[in-house]
Write the structure tokens for this entry.
Amino acid sequence: MTTEHNELESGIEAYLLGSADAEEYERLRTHIEGCSRCRALAARLSRGLAALPLAPEPVEPTAGLHGRVLAAAAAARAGGDQQRSRPRFQMQERRRPRRVWLPGARAALGAAAALLFGFGAIAGVGLARLGPFRQQPQTVERYQLAGSGQLAGVQASAVRLRDGGITLVEFRGLPEPPPGRVYELWLVRADGGAEPAAVFTPESGGTRALVLTADLSGVTTLAVTVEAGPNGASSPTQEPLIKGQIA
Amino acid sequence: MRARRSELSDPELVSALAAGDLDAMDFLYRRYSTLAYSLALRILGDPGRAEDVVQDAFVRVWTRAASFDASRGSLRTWVLTVVRNRAVDYLRGTPARQRDELELRVEVRAMGAGSDPWREVSESLERSAVREALGSLPSEQRQMIELAYYGGYTQTEIAQMADVPLGTVKSRTRLALEKLCSYLQGRGLIDDD
């Protein structure tokens, strides 16, 4: 083997580790593509390299990162020329007739909820930490949901990317539902009609993030109840324990 | 997507990502976020920056999913390679280089694929094996890996820091990777040549 070849071969680790400068990287890359011996060596060494990401102690990121990643992906999709996918829900797809909210008074549910629970104002804020996607303008709306009763301590919010047709709903401090029960998210219209959107249970730490890609036209409120598991109910069987206006 | 999350293979997941299925992105995040964040945090030492890098990496995978070739390596390795490269770029203050993370044909065999509980167990065993492998290296070789892989230093910088010739850095790094490979082959975690 020539001196030049030996020199290039000695640079394979730098190539694999990404520690070569741009010019050297391209030289090495071109050489490896054309040299079967170096290609085999690179393949072998890369097997050891592939194990290194597994060594660090496992640490969970914050719950908020989940929503930010999904929001950034949704923003990237909205920024492209992809067709909007058909409406579907995070956990379960429903095609049931619209049901009217029961029990209790149902008229002007959204306005009543706002009076009772004092929902936060609409904030047209950009999502933080979107990285390179900060440059893509999006109509972003953020809403706070509020809990009551046994869920009074739950923190919940909805981030609506109108242009992308995506709504992220995040929960924190959500206790486990009673045995055999699940949480169910409802899309509530101004006339009180409620459509089931998702059934879910909290993850470890009491957090949960849901992605809604359904058409939310006409939906004024998101609401959560506790229903019979595992599939929830076709219409709410109780007053909402968490709710907030989104329009 | 109708299949249960734990039953999705890499090709199925990649196909759904390439089709712009946000549920698939959700699954990808749930499956690999801990590994990705742990790696980024190890490299950067800053939780906020680590999260930024993880977000950037996942979105890169999302936008390039159509280019992924399952025959050239696993989705996990691709995701983690992107995370590591982004983290090192962040460390060095350089803009994201147009590295083709897809070209690396790398693989660590997961012991016991399938459902989520078994995935966690197999990943735990893999982590233990990799730490043992690193621990078995002579300190001067382990130092090369630590500085190059987790520290993002160039070999020239490592030579200066360790006060050894560049050739010594190269040879020690080569030996370290060879030994890692042999150790993991012996444990059945990677394929034989």
The two ends of chain B are 37 Å apart (CA to CA). Chain B touches chain A through 73 residues (CB under 8 Å).
